[in-house]
């Protein structure tokens, strides 16, 4: 295995956060991002607590946080990122992956473009985690995974394929996809930035959030941050946390600022560790502390390792 699962899990979630935090000048500004991933954190916490997908629990957690469940244009990206934990948790089985992605989307109002965007991003992440992502076949495979659909996303992805085959530069891709601020264009641009700089996380997210072309001045900071978030998730899943520049990671650790509703960056790392433990079947006694004694003497806490989903934290 090229990268460990925990590296890819961390790369996916932290990559999405960093992608949305970058400005068009390539700097990380923690106060400027629109908090795309709060729903993703709540979903991750639900999966950790229950070890399975439970829509009622997801809805309850979001209502408790007073998050809007209506699928409006301004939260479409939040919905797609909210499903990223599902893609991570069920990445090994394409059938379960598709079923659970579509199942969790029932929380929000039906939107075909959000559905296709969710399936496309989730499937690409799953391929990356199973090390089956081939850049030459990713887009045809993704279109096949979407199945028959009335949306423009398959057509936009085919345009991405053509641009990549022609070796088209960033300015041409931006001119193609930034004419209108549509979710399908954001998805397409994210796939372009990811695939055109496949093994360079830093360059992928910098290109995704870069906008100096006078022809695409209509691109808003929100659309650039959305593109950056999806690109970061895709590239982070493929390249793992080791691909995230060290100085960016150090900056996150030093500032230890709140992330997606969590109190600190350290809390995010602990959340991902617990998430991987539940997915993998590691039983961590620290998650369910109990005093183990033997003849009045305290016994050291142990962790038991097993095949995925054989032993679950409870």
TrEMBL record:
InterPro entries the record matches: Ribosyl_crysJ1 (IPR005502), Ribosyl_crysJ1_sf (IPR036705)
Gene Ontology molecular function terms on file: hydrolase activity
UniProtKB keywords: Hydrolase
A Pfam family per the record: ADP_ribosyl_GH
Record protein name field: ADP-ribosylglycohydrolase family protein
């Amino acid at each position: 295995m090229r990268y460990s699962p925990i590296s890819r899990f961390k790369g996916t979630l932290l990559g999405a956060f960093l992608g949305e935090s970058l400005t068009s000048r390539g700097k990380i500004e923690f106060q400027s991002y629109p908090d795309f991933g709060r729903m993703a954190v709540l979903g991750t916490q639900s999966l950790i607590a229950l070890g399975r997908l439970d829509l009622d629990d997801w809805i309850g957690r979001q209502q408790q946080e007073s998050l809007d469940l209506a699928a409006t244009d301004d939260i479409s990206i939040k919905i797609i990122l909210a499903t990223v934990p599902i893609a991570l948790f069920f990445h090994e089985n394409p059938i379960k992956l598709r079923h659970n992605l579509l199942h969790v989307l029932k929380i929000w109002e039906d939107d075909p473009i959000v559905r296709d965007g969710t399936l496309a991003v989730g499937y690409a992440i799953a391929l990356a985690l199973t090390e089956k992502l081939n850049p030459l076949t990713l887009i045809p495979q993704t279109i096949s995974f979407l199945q028959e659909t009335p949306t423009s996303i398959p057509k936009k992805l085919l345009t991405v394929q053509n641009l990549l085959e022609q070796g088209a530069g960033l300015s041409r891709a931006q001119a193609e996809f930034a004419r209108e601020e549509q979710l399908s264009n954001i998805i397409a641009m994210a796939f372009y930035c990811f695939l055109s700089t496949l093994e360079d996380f830093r360059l992928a997210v910098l290109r995704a959030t870069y906008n100096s072309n006078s022809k695409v001045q209509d691109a808003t900071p929100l659309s650039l941050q959305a593109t950056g978030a999806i690109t970061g998730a895709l590239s982070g899943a493929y390249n793992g946390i080791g691909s995230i520049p060290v100085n960016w990671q150090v900056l996150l650790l030093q500032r230890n600022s709140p992330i997606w509703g969590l109190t600190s960056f350290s809390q995010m790392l602990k959340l991902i560790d617990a998430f991987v433990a539940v997915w993998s079947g590691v039983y961590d006694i620290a998650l369910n502390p109990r005093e183990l004694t033997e003849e009045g003497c305290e016994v050291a806490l142990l962790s038991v390792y097993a095949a995925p989903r054989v032993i679950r934290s409870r």
